[in-house]
Known about the structure:
The protein is α+β, with helices and mostly antiparallel strands. 45% of the residues lie in helices and 19% in strands. It is built from three helices and five strands. It has helices at residues 2-47, 49-52, 63-75, and strands spanning 90-92, 97-99, 105-106, 115-123, 129-138. Strands 1, 2, 3, 4 and 5 form a five-stranded antiparallel β-sheet that branches. The chain is elongated. The mean pLDDT is 86.
Amino acid sequence: MLIAVVLLGTAVVATLTAARVTIIGTTIQRDHSKAHEWLQSASEIVADPGSLGWLDCDLPLNGVQIRNSYQASLQGESSIAPEGWDTSRITIAEDVTFASPSGDYGSTCYPAIDRQLVTVEVSGPDGRIIEQVQVVKAAP
Length: 140
C-alpha cells in the first residue's frame, strides 16, 4: 500500500510540474508574440515620415533630441500597444544616429544624406527586454 501511495504521489507531482512548465512557457511565448507584433507596428510608424514626421538633424537637433521626440510620438500611439501593456514599455533605445557618406551611422549629421538609424525596443510587462529592431528612416 505504501508503495502505491508513493508512486501515485510521484505521478501527481510530475503532472503538476509539467502543467506549470507549460503555463509558464505559454505566458512567455504570448508576451514575445505581443512584443513582436507591437514592434512591427512601431517600426512601420517610424519608417513612414508621414506617420511620425521627419526631424532633420540640421535644424540644430542632435540624436538625443530626435530620439526623445520620436519616443514621445511612439508612446502616444496607444492604439498599437497590446491590451494591458503600458505604452511606456516601447522606447527608442539609443540616440538616433545619422548616415555618413561611407554608409556607416554615427553622431555626425550629414543633411544631404537624410537617413537616420532608429533603434526601437519593447519590454514586457515584467520589465525584461523582449524585442528590439533597428529601422532606417529616410526623409520624405
